[in-house]
């Protein structure tokens, strides 16, 4: 039953990290409300691939990255500033009408980009993998491929499952609140600004 354990650890770890509202979640909600659930799941599937890449990156470079970030404070300030600036741009961006026939390739690209360029998720995986290695199973780039495959399959399933849940929940919001789509870019913008301010505050005062 070890194979099931590896899958479940990946699934649970990803689900716990994906439940908090983030840019990918909001993008899925936004697309579901403006278009449909099928369009939103195209974003979710590519975001799942991005999650796997971040997990592999964290497995391979977790110690090195943590040392670099600790040694070079300007990187931390840069990340915080980028999040803040992106949030401001999204908040004040004028809403454009989206059509349901927008290309599949664009949805997949957007989901992948939102998933990959997500520093909080990368930090989460570094912490989560540290906990997993200390308390459950050993995971690193020397782990047998069969084990890594099952773990990463759980990661993908956890990401897709969580985003699917957000998509289905947003259908209820769409039926009850007709104009909620107009606030989605602002919600994403506020979230990024808050994250940026929080990281900047940690750098300056802690």
From TrEMBL:
**Keyword Amino-acid biosynthesis on this protein?**
no
A Gene Ontology CC term for this entry? plasma membrane
Q: Which residues form the signal peptide?
A: none
The protein in question is named LysE family transporter
Pfam families named in the record: LysE
**A Gene Ontology BP annotation from the UniProt entry:** amino acid transport
Keywords, A to Z, come to: Cell membrane, Membrane, Transmembrane, Transmembrane helix
- Main localization is membrane
Q: Which InterPro entries match?
A: LeuE-type
> Where found?
Cell membrane
Protein's organism: Spongiivirga citrea
Transmembrane stretches in the record are 6-28, 40-62, 74-92, 112-132, 144-166, 187-205
The membrane topology noted for this protein in its Swiss-Prot or TrEMBL record is:
Multi-pass membrane protein
Domain of life, per the record? Bacteria
């Amino acid at each position: 039953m070890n194979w099931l354990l590896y899958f479940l650890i990946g699934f649970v770890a990803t689900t716990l990290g994906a439940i908090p509202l983030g840019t990918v979640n909001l993008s899925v909600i936004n697309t579901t409300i403006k278009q449909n659930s099928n369009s939103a799941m195209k974003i979710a599937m590519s975001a799942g691939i991005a999650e796997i890449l971040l997990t592999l990156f964290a497995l391979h470079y977790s110690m090195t990255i943590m040392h670099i970030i600790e040694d070079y404070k300007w990187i931390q300030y840069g990340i915080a500033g980028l999040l803040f600036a992106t949030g401001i741009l999204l908040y004040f961006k004028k809403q454009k009408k989206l059509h349901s026939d927008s290309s599949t390739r664009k949805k997949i690209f957007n989901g992948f980009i939102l998933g990959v360029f997500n520093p909080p998720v990368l930090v989460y995986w570094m912490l989560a993998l540290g906990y997993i290695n200390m308390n459950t199973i050993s995971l690193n780039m020397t782990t047998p491929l069969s084990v890594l495959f099952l773990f990463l399959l759980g990661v993908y399933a956890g990401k897709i499952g969580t985003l699917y849940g957000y998509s289905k929940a947003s259908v209820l919001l769409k039926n009850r609140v007709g104009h909620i789509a107009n606030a989605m870019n602002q919600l994403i913008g506020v979230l990024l600004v808050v994250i940026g301010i929080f990281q900047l505050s940690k750098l300056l005062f802690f």
